[in-house]
Amino acid sequence: MYGGGMGSRNSSSPTVTACTFDSNTASINGGGIWFNGSSNGIVSDSTFSNNSAVTYGGAMHTQNSSPTFTNCTFTQNISLAKGGAISIAGASSMTVSNCTIVSNISDSDNNGSGTTGGISVISSGTLVITNSIVADNRNRTDGSSTDNDIFNDTGTVTSDYNIVEFPFGYA
Known about the structure:
Layout (H helix, E strand, L loop, with lengths): L5 E4 L5 E3 L2 E3 L2 E2 L6 E4 L5 E3 L2 E3 L2 E2 L6 E4 L4 E3 L2 E3 L2 E2 L6 E4 L3 E5 L2 E3 L16 E3 L4 E5 L2 E3 L14 E3 L3 E5 L2 E2 L7
Parallel strand pairs: 1-5, 2-6, 3-7, 4-8, 5-9, 6-10, 7-11, 8-12, 9-13, 10-14, 11-15, 13-16, 14-17, 15-18, 16-19, 17-20, 18-21
């Protein structure tokens, strides 16, 4: 299942304001919310906490879509593979502004396969992030790995006026 709390696909453009996505689970991607297939939603003033995904994006995953997040908080979300909080893949172009992304975890089974507790940009995805805080995100629950908050695997990251604690792999 994609999008444990909410799924958006096929050119839909939802507007989500002042919502809480808490304790949702996706058996595949996007524990809190999932965007796919040219879905260009706008999410503002919302909180994502305690969500989980088996593969990508404990709080949010986007694939071939261009969502915008403003004034949102992502905390204590978890994924098994990439992006404890957020994963961005395919031809996605995600904008994050005035958000707080803290204390999220990837690689929840501690086998070394996960990367990036914060934001993972993969498969030619694009992230534009401004005026945000990205800190204290972890790769593993057992504390044996290096912290990293933004990881640019094969995509593009534009960052302005942010506080990023451990930009391991950030490019």
